[in-house]
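User: Structure please.
Assistant: Input sequence and predicted structure:
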Amino acid sequence: MPAFPNSVTLESRLVRSPDVLFQEVGGEAVLLDLASEQYFGLDPVGTRIWELLDGEAPLARIHHTLAAEYDAKPARIGEDLLALAQTLLDAGLVQPR
């Protein structure tokens, strides 16, 4: 696994962990981490971010996609994206690429 800083940036590339099961229910997501046997919930925007975390696109590209899809200030989208990405990384739900 490549070395990765403690905090994510817009240059970070993250990929969903293969140990996480994903189920969408009514536009929201339920994640089950098989390693910890913990459930996590994502709202519709979080679910969209989860879908975009393919390991190929840097978070900057995901930010651009979200800014085009949602009516919110780009700075706010960036803050929320980085916060969720960090939370997912800290929980082991995504991995650096």
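The domain at 14-91 is CATH 3.90.930 (Outer Surface Protein A; domain 3).
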